[in-house]
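During the second year of the project, the team shifted from modelling isolated chains to modelling whole assemblies. The rationale, set out in the original proposal, was that interfaces cannot be judged from single-chain predictions alone. As a representative example for this report, we include one of the complexes processed in the last quarter. Its constituent sequences, exactly as entered into the pipeline, are reproduced here:
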Amino acid sequence: MRVVFLLYISCLVTHMNAQNKQLLYNVDDLPQTLLSNPGAAISFEKHIGIPLLSGISLSAGSTGISTYDIFQEGGDINARIRDAIFRLDNKDAFVVNQQLEIASFGWKNKFNNNYYSAGLYQETDVIAYFPKDIAVLGYEGNANFLDTPFQFSDVSVAAEVISVYHFGINKEISKKLRVGARAKLYMSIININSTDNEGFFITRTTPDGPNFLQHQIQDASVTANTSGLRSFTDDNAGPGKALGRAIVSNNVGVGFDIGGTYTFNRHWTATASIIDVGAIFHTKDLRNYKLSGNYTTDGIELEFPDVLNGEELTDYWQNLQDEFEENIPYQDSLTNSYTTWRPTKINASVNRGFGRNLNGDCDCTNSGVDRYATNVGIQLYGIKRPRGVQGAVTAYVDRTWNRFFRTKMTYTYDAFSNRNIGLLVSTKINKFNVYLATDNILEYSNLAKAQSASIQFGFQLIFDPK
Amino acid sequence: MKHTFQLLGVLILTLFFTAYTSCVSDVDFDQTQDVVISPNAVTDLIFFNLDTSDFENVDTPEIELSVQDTTRLEFLNDDFIRENLIEITLDFQVDNSFGQSLVNRAAFINSAGVEQYVVEFEIVASPDGTLQRTLFTEVISLEDIQAISNSSQIANEVTLTTNGASINGELIFQSKATYALEFSDL
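Output from the structure prediction step:
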């Protein structure tokens, strides 16, 4: 029980802002920028990722609470837990995202100047909204909440482990416009989804009723869909099964990314992208759980049968159980196919470059493409989640110090934090590139107080134009 | 070039040093041992209506006329309840228009049929045929919880004592239970 509680509290307080890769966006000499904008302006001609090491990303966030809020030394932890339960609402979310590039490569076609990139990455994405009403019911009970509905819709959880094959094209339409698109083939390894729950439980006071109270479950429809889980829980499949599914899964999806970069003039550019427009179709290794229906009870009504005159005793308890199961059937062996939509992301930015032109100031040498050593700008980010869009705005300073070394510093404001400073360091020695990006660095002195954090790093070979 | 690599080295070292020295401090995870969750759950219990016919049918010459019924309440002996229950409050409300006094006896019984705990209270008689309300509360504290949590049935008996007047009226019985639970061994 303690382990479960710790895990729950850990989930409650240590999630970090997921998926927003503000430090890698618009960094034109890193191939990873193509994963957040396939139409990004890029400065390299070829890249090859070190397998399993070219892109490692971990991020998580919680919109309402930190570890410190609960576990700070001194005081009354029970008061803090109670305060947290009543302070958080059902839009507060706990998010975890992890990505691992398994393979990554790309090249520029010398005939049409298109840049093609492809690869395979694995991704874990979890979002759990704070189930406010259920938490209050579990923590406080119903005695002090008569005539208050506890909504089942507060339960909203989506978790998936997938691998993604992708192939993208980055094309220069004109000197001003570059566009890109990426096709994706999703392989679902494990999926758990319970996001469309409805109905409520209520204990009504009934002054004119047959008993003090009336307990109602109204319009209940609580569903949890899983795919890929049954073979692990029932058939004891091992890691090999997961690995196999990462390569080829029976539960497949398709999607795409699109994006572009528009150059207004020599100094100003704008970018935009939509990432992960797609769905996964779960048709195999399924297990669905469903509770639905309506039920009302006032308690057990005794009938006082006249046993001496042959009336039968009534098994009230059995009748109660039967009536409940008949009206709120619990189905745990369904194998219904279902579809999940990927969490679509949008990015946009406005950038101003100034300082030294890395391509040279003369049109005769830079092919009319300006690339400045210093860039400042604003980025917008949004991700579609089950309860709406989570957004972020980032201001950044991006500095290429020399051909070996580049940094990008960001300030990001979102629902997770209003003091999120991030730093990217990217270095290249010959063709070997190492990058490390982490945000919320102000919180690193005590991560317990952080509501979000992320880190991305990788090793790869990047080939610049000769 | 030399300065570049020096700068590079310093920055990367700084970053890694920051990451390395980042820590979780000023927190005490041992406090989980102090966590106590104390929900109060309220549920309806039994209810019934009795009228003149229920006592007419009781074929007994005695002066005390009784009706009795029993139901299982199997959640009482559930391990989850048994281990975490610290108090039960039983509330009864009886509206009576019989002119006779009555007694309600609710006995909590284990699976072997042995009484574990009894709640008994008198229901006031109606002097004029109008409904007279009796409210009764029984608080079962920790020392008596064991008896309740050994039970799986409740047998409720209503006894009417004749007083020479005609037996005529109705009795409306309601009950609920409030369970104070405490989870501390997390």
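The two ends of chain B are 59 Å apart (CA to CA). Chain B touches chain A through 59 residues (CB under 8 Å).
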